Automatic annotation (TrEMBL):
Gene3D superfamilies: Homeodomain-like, Tetracycline Repressor, domain 2. Residues 31-50 bind DNA. It comes from Streptomyces polyasparticus. This is TetR/AcrR family transcriptional regulator. It comes from the Bacteria. Keywords: DNA-binding, Transcription, Transcription regulation. InterPro entries: Homeodomain-like_sf, HTH-type_TetR-like_transc_reg, HTH_TetR, KstR2_TetR_C, Tet_transcr_reg_TetR-rel_C_sf. SUPFAM superfamilies: Homeodomain-like, Tetracyclin repressor-like, C-terminal domain.
Amino acid sequence: MTTAKRDTYTPETLLAVAVQVFNERGYDGTSMEHLSKAAGISKSSIYHHVAGKEELLRRAVSRAIDGLFGILDEPGAREGRAVDRLEHVTRRMVGVLTSELPYVTLLLRVRGNTETERWAMERRRDFDHRVADLLKSAIAEGDLRGDVEARLATRLLFGMINSLVEWFRPEARGADGAEIADAVVQLAFRGLRVED
C-alpha cells in the first residue's frame, strides 16, 4: 500500500524555493505550476501556505529590505562621525547581501510591474537616499572629498556592492563576506577620504 506524500514544506522552505525559481525564470516568467514542480508539491499545497505568487514575492523582497533597513538602526549607523557611520553601513550592506544573496538578488531584479515590485523599488530608493544623506554629511564634516558629487559617489558605491549578486557564490571557495566588505571599504573610502 502506498502512502501519499505529505506536504513537509514550511512557509520558509517554500519561500526559499520560490526565490530560487523567481531568480532563474524571472518573476513574470514564473507560474504557480513552475513553483509547484520545483517544490515537488501540488499547487493547492502552495495555496495552503500563501495566497499566491505575489505574496511569495512580497515576503522575499521584504526579507531583503528588512535586512538593509535593520542596518540603519544599528548603533554603528547612528553614532559617531558620518564617515564612520557610512563605513559601518557599507560593511553591513555587504554582509546582508552575502548572507541573504538570493533575496537581495531578487530585490535588485524587480522592475515595477506589480504593486509589490513598485513598493519594493520605493523602499530601495528610500534606503538609497538615506545612505546618500550619510555620504553628504561626511562630505560636509570634511572627511570625504567634496569634488566628487555625492549622488554619483553613492551610485558608484551601490554599484560596487550590488555587483556582488552577479559573481559572489557562497559555496565557491574564495573571499567570504567579511573579506569582501574589507575590500569594498578599502577601495571606496581610500579614494573618497580627504587626504591628510
